[in-house]
Write a structure and sequence with these properties.
Pfam families: CUB (PF00431). This is CUB domain-containing protein. InterPro entries: CUB_dom, LDrepeatLR_classA_rpt, Non-NMDA_GluR_Accessory, Sperma_CUB_dom_sf. With 670 residues, the chain is α+β, with helices and mostly antiparallel strands. It has 3 domains: 178 residues, Jelly Rolls, CATH 2.60.120.290; 136 residues, Spermadhesin, CUB domain (Jelly Rolls), CATH 2.60.120.290; 174 residues, Spermadhesin, CUB domain (Jelly Rolls), CATH 2.60.120. The chain contains 5 helices and 34 strands. Helix 4 packs antiparallel against helix 5.
Length: 670
C-alpha cells in the first residue's frame, strides 16, 4: 500500500548470493547461469483505501511502511496515551485489516510491560473481531471471580499474580467482538503487546452493503516497569514504577527474592531496588541466604559500583542501623545472615551504576524463624533465643566456645557480658568451615559463617584459617554466631574453637599497675602487635595456657608462678576442680592448722610419757607397802615404837595418790 498517490518499486538484480542446494545442482547439470523466477504482482488504483490520519503525528507513533494501516507505538520511558481504529471517530471501512504494535523498553536499563484498557468498543461479530496476543486480562476487584474460557491455552504466572492480587492467565490470543467493551485491563507478558483487527471474510469478492461500516474502538495504553514481575507480598502503592518490595511473616514464612531483570536476564543499570522484610514480633528472626550471586564490580572489598547492602531497625528505636559489609563479585557469596534480637524491619538494598558491565544479579531466599524451628537445637549448642550469660571476672576469668565438630543445618549463638570496666580478649585458634574470603577469586561464605559481634565491630569469617586470630572487644560484651546450612562438600572439617579471657586494658599514660594489683597480673607488651597492654586475673598464672598472648608469655613464666595466689595450677590429679580450687585459695590457713595440730600431738606425747612414769612410781610404792605389811607380824613387838613412823608413811602415800589422780585429770583434759 502506498501512503499517497505515488508508488515507486525498484527491482535490482546483482550477482548471485549463496546458492541453494537446488541451484547448485542446476548449475552443475546445465553448466550455465541459474535463472530465478523473480516476481509477479497485481496492482489496483483505488480512492477508498484506508486513510492514515488516525495515526498520531509524534515520535512514538509510526506507520509501518507497505502495510494497509499497521502502526507501532514505542515507549520512550513510562509513556501513556490513546490509540483508535481507522477513520475514528467514525466507523472504519469493512474488510480492513490493521495491526497495532505497542513496544515497551527492553534494554539493560529497564524492561517495560504494556497495559491497555478500552474506552469504547463496537464491532459486529458477523463482520470482524479484535485479537490481543500473549496477554492476560486483569479484572477489577469486583470482577476477579469471572471464569476464563477453558478452550484457550493458558500460561499462569505467580509473579504477576502477586502484583495484581489475582491469578493471571497469559493466553496465546484473546478474541473480542460485540457492542460492549471488554471488561478490565490487559497486560502483556513481555515488552510487546500486539492487537489485530481481522475481518471475517477478507478474501471475498462480493462486498455487501452492510459491510460499508465495519465498526470502531478506542483504547488507552500505559508502559509500566516490570518490577512487578519480581515475587513479593506487597509493592509500592504510591509509585508502581519504584522497585520497593515488601515481605511479611504474617503472609509467608519463606520465599525467594531477586532483582528485576531485562529480557537478556541481566539486572538493569542504574537500578535501585529495596526489599523490605517484616518479622511478626520481637521473638521472630529473619534468615537470609543465596542460591546464586553475580553482581559485577572490580573492587570486591569496597564494591563502589554495583553492590548489595543491609540495614535494619529495632522495636526499641526508629533509627536504622547499617550492616558494615558490602557484597559484590561473581560467586562471591554473602554469608548467611540471621537478624539480631528485636528486629522490626530488615532491608536489603541493591544498587547498580551506569556502566556497561552487568550480571545475572542474585537469587536470594528468606525464612522467618522462631524458637521452635529445627535449626535451633539446644542439645547441640546455645541458640539465639537463650539468655545472655553473665561472667564473674573473679570466679570465671576465662573460658572457651566451640562448635563441637562441624554440624549441619544448625544456628548457634553465644552472648557473654561481664562487669563494666572490663573487656574480653578472644583467641580463635581453630577455624575449619566451608567457603573462603581469601582465595583469588574469593568464594564467599555461601553455606556457613562464623560471625563475631562486639561494640562497634562485626567480623565475618569462613574457610580454613591456619594462624591464631586475636582481638579485644571495645566494651564488656560480645556475641558469637555460628550458622551452618546444607554443606556442599563432604570434606572433613572441624568447625571452630575460641578461647576468651576477661581483661582490664592499660593505656600508655597509666603506669604499669592494675587497678586491683592484689588480684590481677600485668601483661607487659613485648611483641609487635596492635593489641596494647592489659591485666589478667592472678588465678590464670601458670595454668598451662598463655593468657597474655599475643603481646607476651609472662603469665606462664616460672618466675611469676609464686604470685599465683589464688592459683589455678593444673595438676595431674583426679580431684574435682572445685576441691582443687578450695585448697589453692586456703593453702596458708591449712599450713597453720597443720603446724598447730603437730604441736598439740607433741604436747600430748610428752604428757603421756609423764603419766607412764608416774604410774611406775605408784607401782613401786605399792610393792614397798606390801613388803612392810608382811613384816608387821614379825615386828609386833616394835609396834608402839614404830607407830609414829608408820603413820607418817601412810600420810605420804595418800599425798602421792592424790597427786597421781590430779595428773590423770590433766592428761584427760589435754
Amino acid at each position: 500500500y502506498s501512503t499517497g498517490n505515488l508508488l515507486l518499486l525498484y527491482f535490482i538484480a546483482t550477482h548471485y548470493a549463496e546458492l541453494t542446494d537446488e541451484e547448485q545442482a542446476q548449475m552443475a547439470e546445465h553448466s550455465g547461469p541459474v535463472w530465478r523466477k523473480g516476481f509477479f504482482a497485481e496492482y489496483e488504483f483505488s480512492s477508498s483505501l484506508t486513510k492514515l490520519d488516525f495515526i498520531s503525528k509524534n515520535k512514538s507513533n509510526q506507520y509501518v511502511s507497505g502495510t494497509e494501516c499497521d502502526q507501532t507505538i514505542k515507549s520512550f520511558g513510562q509513556g501513556h496515551g490513546k490509540f483508535q481504529s481507522p477513520n475514528w471517530p467514525h466507523s472504519y471501512k469493512a474488510q480492513t485489516s490493521c495491526t497495532t504494535y505497542l513496544l515497551g523498553l527492553d534494554d539493560r536499563y529497564t524492561l517495560e510491560n504494556v497495559e491497555i484498557e478500552f474506552d469504547q468498543f463496537d464491532i459486529d461479530c458477523n463482520l470482524a473481531s479484535l485479537v490481543i496476543y500473549n496477554a492476560s486480562r486483569i479484572y477489577d476487584y469486583r470482577l476477579r471471580s469471572r471464569p476464563s474460557s477453558p478452550l484457550l491455552s493458558t500460561s499462569k504466572s505467580s509473579l504477576f499474580s502477586n502484583y495484581y492480587r489475582q491469578e493471571l492467565d497469559f493466553k496465546g490470543n484473546l478474541s473480542f467482538c460485540g457492542h460492549f467493551k471488554p471488561e478490565g485491563r490487559f497486560v502483556s507478558k513481555n515488552a510487546l503487546l500486539k492487537l489485530s483487527f481481522i475481518p471475517t471474510d477478507r478474501s471475498g469478492t462480493n462486498v455487501y452493503s452492510s459491510l460499508n461500516s465495519g465498526g470502531k474502538f478506542q483504547a488507552r495504553y500505559k508502559f509500566v516497569k516490570s518490577y512487578h514481575q519480581v515475587s513479593a507480598d506487597e509493592y509500592d502503592g504510591t509509585n508502581t514504577n519504584t522497585c520497593n518490595l515488601s515481605y511479611y511473616q504474617s503472609r509467608a514464612l519463606f520465599g525467594k527474592f531477586e532483582p528485576p531483570r531485562s529480557s537478556e536476564n541481566d539486572y538493569f543499570a542504574n537500578s535501585n531496588c529495596t526489599f523490605n522484610f517484616y518479622p511478626m514480633n520481637e521473638n521472630s528472626r529473619l534468615l537470609i541466604w543465596y542460591d546464586y550471586f553475580n553482581i559485577v564490580d572490580d573492587d570486591l572489598i569496597q564494591c563502589p559500583s554495583d553492590n548489595l547492602t543491609y540495614t535494619y531497625s529495632l522495636y526499641s528505636s526508629s533509627t536504622f542501623y547499617v550492616h558494615p559489609f558490602r557484597y559484590c563479585g561473581y560467586r562471591n557469596f554473602p554469608s548467611p545472615f540471621l537478624s539480631v534480637r528485636s528486629t522490626e524491619l530488615f532491608r536489603v538494598h541493591f544498587r547498580s551504576n551506569d556502566d556497561a558491565d552487568a550480571g545475572l544479579g542474585f537469587e536470594g531466599r528468606y525464612q522467618f524463624v522462631n524458637q521452635s524451628n529445627s535449626l535451633f537445637s539446644p542439645a547441640i549448642c546455645r541458640t539465639p533465643f537463650d539468655s545472655i550469660v553473665y561472667v564473674n571476672e573473679t570466679n570465671e576469668p576465662s573460658g572457651n566456645i566451640s562448635s563441637d565438630g562441624y554440624p549441619e543445618n544448625v544456628i548457634c549463638e553465644w552472648s557473654y557480658v561481664t562487669s563494666r570496666g572490663f573487656q574480653f580478649l578472644l583467641e580463635l585458634n581453630l577455624l575449619q568451615i566451608e567457603g573462603s574470603k581469601t582465595k583469588d577469586p574469593p568464594q564467599g561464605c555461601q553455606t556457613a559463617v562464623l560471625r563475631i559481634y562486639s561494640e562497634g565491630r562485626i567480623d565475618e569469617l569462613c574457610g580454613q584459617q591456619e594462624e591464631v586470630y586475636y582481638f579485644t572487644t571495645e566494651s564488656n560484651w560480645f556475641t558469637i554466631q555460628f550458622i551452618s546450612l546444607n554443606r556442599q562438600t563432604k570434606e572433613l572439617l572441624r568447625g571452630f574453637h575460641i578461647y576468651w579471657t576477661v581483661i582490664e586494658t592499660r593505656t600508655k599514660s597509666i603506669d604499669q599497675r592494675c587497678s586491683l594489683s592484689d588480684e590481677y597480673f600485668y601483661c607487659k607488651k613485648t611483641a609487635n602487635h596492635s593489641i596494647g597492654n592489659f591485666c589478667i586475673h592472678r588465678s590464670l598464672l601458670c595454668d598451662g595456657h598463655s593468657h597474655c598472648q599475643p603481646i607476651s608469655n609472662d603469665d606462664e613464666h616460672p618466675s611469676n608462678c609464686y604470685m599465683m595466689i589464688p592459683s589455678r595450677v593444673k595438676q595431674p590429679l583426679t580431684l574435682p576442680s572445685s576441691t582443687l580450687s578450695f585448697f589453692h585459695q586456703h593453702l596458708l590457713l591449712i599450713v597453720i592448722i597443720f603446724v598447730l595440730c603437730l604441736t598439740m600431738l607433741c604436747i600430748v606425747f610428752i604428757l603421756i610419757c609423764l603419766l607412764i612414769k608416774m604410774k611406775r612410781r605408784q607401782q613401786d610404792r605399792q610393792s614397798s607397802k606390801r613388803r612392810r605389811t608382811n613384816q608387821r607380824d614379825d615386828l609386833l613387838l616394835r609396834k608402839k615404837s614404830l607407830q609414829t613412823y608408820s603413820d607418817e608413811e601412810e600420810e605420804d602415800e595418800d599425798d602421792g595418790e592424790h597427786h597421781i589422780n590430779r595428773m590423770e585429770q590433766a592428761v584427760t583434759t589435754v
